[in-house]
Structure prediction request, 449 residues.
Amino acid sequence: MKKIAIIGAGLTGLTTAFYLRKNNIDITLFESTQHIGGVIQTKEKDQFIWETGPSTGVLGKPEAMELFEDLEALDILETAPSLAGKRYIWKGKGLHPLPSGPISGLLTPLFSWKDKFGLLFEPFRPKAENPDENLSSFVRRRLGESVLQYAVDPFVSGVYAGSPDTIIPRYALPKLYNLEATYGSFLRGTYHKMKEPKTPRDLKATKKTFSAKGGLSRLIERLVAVIGEERIKTKCKDLVVMNEEKGFSVSSSAFEAEHFDEVIFTGSAKGILKTFPFLQNKGLEAISQIRYTAVAEVAVGFEKWEGFPLDGFGALIPSKEKRRILGILFMSSLFQNRAPKGGAMLSVFVGGERHPEYVSLSDDELKALVKEELIPILKIPNFNPAIFEISRHQEAIPQYDLLTPDRINAFKAAEENFPGLHLGGNGIGGIGMADRIKQGKELFLSIIS
Ligand SMILES: Cc1cc2nc3c(=O)[nH]c(=O)nc-3n(C[C@H](O)[C@H](O)[C@H](O)COP(=O)(O)OP(=O)(O)OC[C@H]3O[C@@H](n4cnc5c(N)ncnc54)[C@H](O)[C@@H]3O)c2cc1C
Prediction:
C-alpha cells in the first residue's frame, strides 16, 4: 500500500487527507505549528463567537458542498440568509448599498451617469489585446472609472486585501476574464452563462455564503475526526523532504526520517524551496517570489447594538475614500449565535496592500484606529465593546499578480521533474475556501489516479 505524506494541516491539506483516508490510504499529515486548521480558527467568549482567519466562504464550486456531504456534516453547514446579498460601500459621508438590479443601478450615487449609460455600450467595446492586463485597466476599459473605484476596488480590498493595479484577472478572477475572452463582453457572457444548461452537480455551486454552525473550527474538527488525530503530526518545524531513488524521505529536528511514496505540499509557496532542497538551483525561484499582503482582523462584539442597521453582508471602503480600514463584516447578521440577542459581532479588516504598516501597530494604537473609524461609519453612539480582539496575519493573502504565470510554470516543472511530488497551497488555484477544497480534492484525485 502506498504511503503518502501531506504537508500543511490547513483546509487544503485536511481536505486531501480526508478523501485519502476515506479511501483507506495510509497518510501522515505534517504541520509545523501546534494548531490544526491553518488560518482557520474560531474563538468563543461570553456568548460571542468570532473567527480569527477566514469568516465567510462561498459555495461557488460543487466541491465545497460535496465536502460537507461526503463528510456527513450537512448538520453543521450554515448558509447566510438572503440579506447577505446586500453589500454596503462607503462614499462621502455615508454607506450606500451596491446596486443589485437595473433600477438601483440607475439610482445609485456610487457610479457616474457617464458609466451608468456607458453600460449600454459594453457589449460593443473591443476585447483586450494584452491577456495579462491588470484589473484596473480591464474594468476601466469595459465599465468605467466609477465602477472601478466604487465596486471593484473595494471588492479587491475585501477579498485579496490587494490592489486592482497589481491583480491580474486572468489568474485572480478567471471567470470574469473568460466572459470577455470567450464572449467578448461581460453582459453577453453573463447572459450566455445563465442560459447554459446546468448539471445536477453544477447546481451544488449555489454561490451562497457559508460557514459552519458555531464557526469554521467545527468543520476542521469534523475533518480531523475522520482523518484520525494520531495521523496528524504537529509542531514539525524545519521539515525537510529529500528525494530518493523511489519516493521521498521526510524528516525534521523533532523526528527521524520516514519514507513515503508520494508527498503533497499545501503550505505557503514561500516555504517550498526550503522544505524541498532538491528543488533549489533548478530555475524554480518564481515559486518563492510570491507576494502576500498583511492583514489584521479585529473582532468587535457589542452586547447591545444601537448603531447603523446591520441588514447586510458588511461594508467595504474604496481606497479613494482614504479611510484607514478596508471593510467590516456584519458576522452576527450572517450566522446564528455569534453575539447575544440584541447585540452584534463585527469583523473589521485593516492593512492590506493599502496600509501594511497598520498591521504592526501596537494593540492600543490599532484599537484606537478601529474605534475612530467604526464610530462614524456605523454611527455608534456608545462605543463600549465587550469583545475587542486583534488577530494579525503578516502573510495573509497571496497576490495573483504579474509573477503568477512564472509561478504556475515553476510548480508544473517541479512536479514533472519529480514524479510523486504534488505541489498545492493557496499560491496556486485560488484563495477562497471553495478553491482550497477543490484543490484538496484534486490533490487526492492525482494520488489515486
Ligand atoms: C485573515 C484572513 C481572512 C480570510 N478570509 C477569507 C474569507 O472570508 N473567505 C475565504 O474564502 N477565504 C478567506 N481567506 C483565505 C482562506 O482562508 C485561505 O486561502 C485558506 O484557508 C488557506 O487554506 P490552506 O490550507 O491552503 O492554507 P493555510 O490555512 O495557510 O494552511 C497551511 C498550513 O500549512 C502549514 N505549513 C506551511 N508550511 C509548512 C511546512 N514547510 N511544514 C509544515 N507545515 C507547513 C501552516 O502552518 C498551515 O497550518 C482569508 C485568509 C486570511 C489569512
